[in-house]
Amino acid sequence: MTIYHIAARSSWDAAVATGEYRVSTLEQSLDEVGFIHASFADQIAGTADRFYRPAAEAGVRLCVLVIDEDSVRAAGTEIREEAGNGQRFPHIYGPLATDCVTEVREAAFGADGAFRY
After folding, report:
1. How far is the C-alpha of 31 from the C-alpha of 111, rounded, in Å?
2. DSSP state of 42
3. How far is CA 10 from the centre of its chain?
4. Which domain of life does this protein belong to (predicted)?
5. Bridge-partner residues for 80, per DSSP?
6. pLDDT single digits (tens) 62-105
7. What is the pTM of this model?
């Protein structure tokens, strides 16, 4: 199964250099939160709107990481579906190996306000 994570492009670029992504969400690390927030495909737009619009409006470049859930588990990292905002979201309990990311999509809010990636 495929899951997704919205990231600041600068955070992803730094992770590529080390081989591990360790950001839970904007301005919070994996160590601070305990897991990396992720979304299913139908949750990305809502997540972006609720949590990432202010950063994008402030000029932060965003990207969407396309993550192979099976690769994450094969690397020994646990993924749990947990409740949040009346839905279940995938949470990655450990660092994300960059080779578990199958695609990196540039992302931004369009003039119409829709999140595109």
Report:
1. 35
2. G
3. 13
4. Bacteria
5. 91
6. 999 999 999 999 999 999 999 977 899 999 999 999 999 999 99
7. 0.95
Residue 64's contacts (CB-CB under 8 Å, 6 or more residues apart) are 4, 5, 6, 7, 44, 104, 105, 107, 117
The answer to whether residues 94 and 100 touch, using CB atoms and an 8 Å cutoff, is no
Question: How many whole angstroms from its chain centre is CA 89?
Answer: 11
CATH of the domain at 96: 3.20.170.20
Q: Which domain holds residue 10?
A: 2-116
* 3-class DSSP state of 39: strand
Q: How far apart are CA 90 and CA 13, in angstroms?
A: 23
How many Cβ atoms are within 10 Å of 76's Cβ, its own excluded? Answer: 8
| DSSP helix/strand/coil, 45 | helix
Q: What is the count of structural domains for the chain?
A: 1
pLDDT digits (tens, 9 = 90+) for 41-54: 999 999 999 999 99
Please, which residues have CB within 8 angstroms of residue 111's CB and are 6 or more apart in sequence?
none
